[in-house]
Amino acid sequence: MGETIAFITGAGRGIGREIAKTLAKKAVKVVVTDIDQSAAEETVSLLETEAIAVRCDVTSLNDVSRATNEAMKAFGQIDILINNAGWDKIEPFLESEPHTWEKVIAINLLGQIHTCKTVLPQMIEQGHGGKVINLASDSARVGSSGEAVYSAAKGGVVSFTKTLAREMARHKINVNCIAPGPSNTPLLQEISTYNEGIVKALEKAIPFRRLAEAEDIANAVAFLASKEADYITGQTLSVNGGLTMA
């Protein structure tokens, strides 16, 4: 196989943008998708590789299908799928409302189901295997106060990944999870505006005494997307500075 094409969701900023930059440095061509078209285009402008920006609302199966078709028209194949798009709102469960639950589940769980439903058939038809890396969270493994439904959604991602890994193995498609711990991202910065002290508390709890940077997560994703990880599937890799160890 010559060129390698990656389809990344939520790549308009934060971890998704850093994943795109990291893969681009490894000569991977990138489909940068985001619900914010201008943010996706900004990411493309930063990449040292051939890339396109595609608007994609992962909560809509039809929109994901359209975005997948655009990627296929541009590059003719998708070899790596990275499900990075995510969203959260930190608040006690009993103070949360159904519209928040629905948004959290739609983006964090259904979004990954939608992309796998549309991209995996393309990978199978291509016949040379592929890599799927789903972004979960350590909250899926140990829970996280104020993130009940988010933790549930990410727990679903972990289970979904394991099952897909079993079903896709005969097609030589690896399916794995990255579970970030607390990370220095725009989303956390937004959360900290209404939850003062959260960053300092997290830093104190992490053995390395710092939040994960986007490149920490991106480097782990790049490893699972690489040939060196060809015999790894169905796994969840925590990237958390030692906050949880399991």
Automatic annotation (TrEMBL):
<dbReference type="Pfam" id="PF13561">
    <property type="entry name" value="adh_short_C2"/>
</dbReference>
<dbReference type="InterPro" id="IPR002347">
    <property type="entry name" value="SDR_fam"/>
</dbReference>
<keyword id="KW-0560">Oxidoreductase</keyword>
<dbReference type="GO" id="GO:0016491">
    <property type="term" value="F:oxidoreductase activity"/>
</dbReference>
<comment type="similarity">
    <text>Belongs to the short-chain dehydrogenases/reductases (SDR) family.</text>
</comment>
<dbReference type="InterPro" id="IPR020904">
    <property type="entry name" value="Sc_DH/Rdtase_CS"/>
</dbReference>
<dbReference type="InterPro" id="IPR036291">
    <property type="entry name" value="NAD(P)-bd_dom_sf"/>
</dbReference>
<protein>
    <submittedName>
        <fullName>2-hydroxycyclohexanecarboxyl-CoA dehydrogenase</fullName>
        <ecNumber>1.1.1.-</ecNumber>
    </submittedName>
</protein>
<dbReference type="InterPro" id="IPR050259">
    <property type="entry name" value="SDR"/>
</dbReference>
